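Re: beginner question about structure tokens

> Can someone show what the tokenized structure looks like for a real chain? I only ever see the sequence side.

Sure, here's an example I had lying around. Input first:
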Amino acid sequence: MRKSDASDQPANIGAKALSTNPALKPLEFLVGEWRTTGSHPEFSGQTLFGRASFAWHEGGACLIMRTQIDDPQIPNGVAIIGSDDVAGTFAMIYFDERGVSGYSM
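And the corresponding structure tokens:
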């Protein structure tokens, strides 16, 4: 196996997979930008404000979530949400500005 350079890499690698994932249809209402209000167990009694955005990735196969809380103690994050068709569940891979990552189902 060798890494190809831009001159010999077809522009359509994986193009057939750039389609809507019907299992994610229930999450369609999330697409857009949102103002958020919430709490965190480490900040008892404090209301946290922020923003979140959701956008389809590459034709709708996955959903990308980006988050930012106004309090600098809470890290900005990004997650990719997909589905596990066998289990009938959603799955999420998360990463934040601290370098923390995780997987959740």
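Each token stands for a local structural state, so reading them left to right follows the chain. The beta strands are 32-38, 48-57, 62-69, 77-84, 89-96, 101-104.
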